[in-house]
From TrEMBL:
PROSITE patterns: GGDEF. GO terms for molecular function: diguanylate cyclase activity. It catalyses: 2 GTP = 3',3'-c-di-GMP + 2 diphosphate. This is diguanylate cyclase. InterPro entries: Diguanylate_Cyclase (IPR050469), GGDEF_dom (IPR000160), Nucleotide_cyclase (IPR029787), Rev_trsase/Diguanyl_cyclase (IPR043128). GO terms for cellular component: plasma membrane. Its EC number is 2.7.7.65. Residues 139-269 form the GGDEF domain. Signal peptide: none annotated. One of its GO terms (biological process) is cell adhesion involved in single-species biofilm formation.
Length: 269
């Protein structure tokens, strides 16, 4: 039986198969005992060749499918990666906006909307801070409660708009008269609270007098005549070891004495 050399190309193989077909078809070889085995061998060769071709096509198909799937997975990965990056950027912006909003809300929650000074919550936080710091501070803190004299007359005589304008002018006077280290806020209504960290009573008294004089200099033009205002102040100094509530009580009592004594003055309690 003939064999195909390893280096035989497809053309040689085709010619050899054609030659075998001619031999098998020739009447001269019909009686040859090798004809039948050769015919079966040729048929088996062609079957194996067809199977091999199918396997090659199948292998090529799987390879191409794998390549396409790999490409598709890669593209999908890149697509999802870009989406995740976009979501991350959106998330970062969202987090920044949330932080900004939270800071704005916190700031708003600590500010009086009319005067733009700190509100009662802000002042309470500062008082707690001063209580905590007073254990190590070189000097105790002082605080003062300020009340606008005859404020109801302003609201009744000139209207609530003028009352609001007066409170704004007082807030400006307070900001201009205190030190950078001091705290001031609207305690409620026409009352304001001043906190002087690590301050001697004599120094705090000078500041409150400066505040009182600045408020006394306010004059707001109105068609019914200029609106002027004064303030009464109760001042005290924290006693070592006490909480701010006790100091507030003393300052409030001093404020009542300032009112009884004729207003427009600072009384130490």
């Amino acid at each position: 039986m003939s064999t195909i050399p390893p280096d035989t190309d497809e053309g040689d193989e085709a010619r050899l198969l054609a030659e075998i077909d001619q031999l098998l078809d020739s009447p001269v070889h019909h009686a040859n005992p090798l004809r039948a085995p050769l015919a079966r061998l040729l048929a088996l060769h062609r079957q194996q060749n067809e199977r091999l071709l199918r396997l090659i096509h199948l292998s090529d198909g799987y390879h191409e499918l794998g390549r396409l799937r790999s490409s598709t997975l890669s593209q999908r990965f890149e697509h999802h990666l870009r989406r995740l990056e976009k979501l991350a950027r959106i998330s970062d912006r969202y987090q920044d906006q949330l932080r900004s909003l939270n800071a704005a809300l916190l700031q708003s929650s600590l500010k009086d909307p009319l005067t733009e000074l700190g509100n009662r919550r802000y002042l309470m936080e500062r008082l707690h801070d001063e209580d905590a710091a007073s254990t190590t501070a070189p000097a105790a803190y002082c605080l003062a409660i300020l009340d606008v004299d005859h404020f109801k007359r302003i609201n009744d005589g000139w209207g609530h708009d003028m009352g609001d304008a007066t409170l704004k002018h007082i807030a400006d006077a307070l900001r201009g008269a205190i030190r950078h280290s001091d705290f001031v806020g609207r305690w409620g209504g026409e009352e304001f609270l001043l906190i002087f960290p690590a301050t001697e009573l004599a120094d705090a008294f000078q500041i409150t007098e400066r505040v009182r004089q600045a408020i006394g200099a306010i004059s707001i033009a109105h068609r019914l005549g200029p609106v002027t205002v004064s303030a009464s102040i109760g001042l005290t100094r924290q006693i070592a070891g006490e909480r701010f509530a006790a100091a507030l009580d003393r300052a409030d009592s001093a404020l009542l004495r300032a009112k009884r004594d004729g207003r427009d003055r600072t009384v130490i309690g």
